[in-house]
Amino acid sequence: MAHGTDSLWDDRSPVRSAAPLAGNVAYDVCVVGGGIAGLTAAYHLAREGKKVVVLEAKSAVAAAETMATTAHLSWAIDDRFSHVESVRGADAAKLAAKSHRAAVEMVGEIADREEIDCDYERLDGYLFPGADGPDALEKEWEAVQRLGLPVGRAIGVPIPGIKGPALKFPDQGRFHPVKYLSGVAAAIRKYGGVIHTDTLVEKVRGGDPCEVTTKSRNTVKAGAVVIATNSPFEAGTSLHLKVSAYHTYAFAAEVPKGAVPDALYWDTEDPYHYVRLQPGDAGRDYLIVGGEDHKTGQADDQDQRWGRLEQWAKARFPMMGKVTHRWSGQVFETPDGLGLIGLAPWNGPNVYVITGDSGMGTTHGTLGGRLVADLVQHKSNELAGLYSPGRLMPGAAKTFFQENLNLAAQYADWLTGGDVKSEADIPPGQGAVVRSGLTKLAVYKDDKGTVTKLSAVCPHMGCIVRWNPGETTWDCPCHGSRYAADGKLLHGPATEGLKKAE
After folding, report:
1. Other Cβ atoms within 10 Å of 37 Cβ, number
2. How many CA atoms lie within 13 A of 206 on its CB side?
3. What is the pLDDT of residues 151-209, one digit of tens each?
């Protein structure tokens, strides 16, 4: 989640926190990561009789990228069905639609079964043309017709500020993600599962049993390990080449209750805009707007992107009131637009991974949790081949090579000068990379002028981090690791913070 910003989902429920792991323990399954993917997997496994432990690095579950989502509970594929069909074929696109529709339903089923009050509702979604014109909309319409998906044409969107043709996707959903996962965490404990927060995992070794080692040198031995850390933690080169980190922005603004029809809204621009409502109180709702995506660490105007997002929204939602929250987060895109879920292609047997959310974190996490729970128990699941982390993607080869050429180009930062010549050139409250001999330093100057000097080398795979002025963070442009201004680790795949400058 944003380091210097405030998410609408922030919730202080005590059920989200727990004591750190202390000592060496053994379980049937160890789940690494307490977001929607990890908690969903743990829920199914615990409910089905497995002895499960969840290890979360943050001080609470649902405190990382779950807090940074806009929680569109949607089966309308983020990268569009036309793209999935073109790179994976019609059968795969149909199965992807089926799996995400099942995920939307599953959240409702779990909320109902466990009596979780999380504002879950089914509603329509609308895809409408952006500044790019109607061609992308027509391409998607042709694809959903070929695939036989229940999508209709709409003359317009039920918002006065949005005119023209649209596609109507029925039976989408929305919910409060943190309220939902607080209830899921309580259910895991009810079924005998154990949760530990403030427990950073540094190493996973597959085997029979597997062994998980934490930063505090405690170990968990387990028959299987599920790695659900958003980014492909401990993935090795093969999986890192299949995911690309993107930064996305969101805000919430007050609107009069009933002024905006309760639905999901997306346009066809690249990057696209996405909009939904969240019920409020005292005669108000919250309009949640997201967009302005870019490759993580590969922009220098992060502090301006919320402003552009607000301008876009005001032009289409004139009833929008004051902005109450601003936040940002990361999505990990795959070349074919579908998640990487299943047996991890590294590190020995009995290790499973859920990553590559591709902008569909709530549904990919939900269906991924169900899928790996089946795989751990050696149950057949028709989704195993569709989402296999080891799958080849020949149809998406162009995207694959473009992303990896971009990745390789980031290492050229080792050969360039710094952002500024010296720390004297850094304004208070800002940071910059400064060259120091053969290496580079990440230098932050706080509002009082106190300077913190860190190595600018990301400890994950040696990229040079870049300053994010919107979040006051250091972001890695290669694999998406993020650090606070003082070097503290905020987001993996790195497992340690930036080192102090020598």
Report:
1. 33
2. 15
3. 999 988 888 778 889 999 999 999 999 999 999 999 999 999 999 999 999 999 999 99
- Over residues 119-164, the pLDDT tens digits come to 999 999 999 998 888 999 999 999 999 999 999 999 888 887 788 8
CA-to-CA distance for 152 and 156, rounded, in angstroms? 12
Handedness of CA 165, 166, 168, 173 (dihedral sign): negative
Judge whether residue 236 has pLDDT over 80. Answer: no
d(CA 479, CA 465): 10
* Residue 291 near residue 271, CB atoms below 8 Å: yes
Alpha helices in 236-360 (DSSP H): 236-240, 302-316
Q: What is the pLDDT of residue 327?
A: 95
User: Radius of gyration over alpha carbons of the chain, in Å?
Assistant: 22
Rounded CA separation 461/434 (Å): 20
Instruction: Give the model's pLDDT for residue 2.
Output: 41
Catalogue the E-assigned strands of 401-495.
Answer: 430-436, 439-445, 451-455, 466-468, 473-475, 482-484, 489-491
DSSP assignment letter at 35: S
CB atoms within 10 A of CB 393: 15
Q: Is the pLDDT of residue 402 over 90?
A: no
229/35 Cα distance (integer angstroms)? 8
Pairing of strands 466-468, 439-445: unpaired
For residues 361 and 394, the model is more confident at: 361
User: Using 50, 70 and 90 to split pLDDT, how confident is the model at 372?
Assistant: very high
Contact 351, 206 (CB under 8 A): yes
pLDDT of residue 392: 84
- Asked if 13 and 206 count as a contact pair (C-beta separation under 8 A), the reply is no
| 306-324 residue pLDDT tens | 999 999 999 999 999 999 9
| The CA-based dihedral angle spanning residues 205, 352, 494, 485, taken in that order and rounded to the nearest 10 degrees | -140
Residues 6 or more apart whose Cβ sits within 8 Å of residue 498: 442, 454, 455, 456, 457, 458, 459, 465, 474, 483, 487
Contacts of 470 (CB under 8 A, 6+ apart): 4, 5, 249, 302, 303, 304, 305, 306, 328
125 φ, ψ (degrees, to nearest 5): -125, 145
CA distance 157 to 403: 34
Contact 465, 474 (CB under 8 A): yes
Which residue matches tokens 């090795």? 236
| Reduced DSSP (H G I as helix, E B as strand, rest coil) percent helix, strand, coil of the chain, to 5 | 30, 30, 40
Strand order in the sheet with 466-468: 466-468, 473-475, 482-484, 489-491
Percentage of the residues of the chain whose pLDDT score is greater than 70: 98
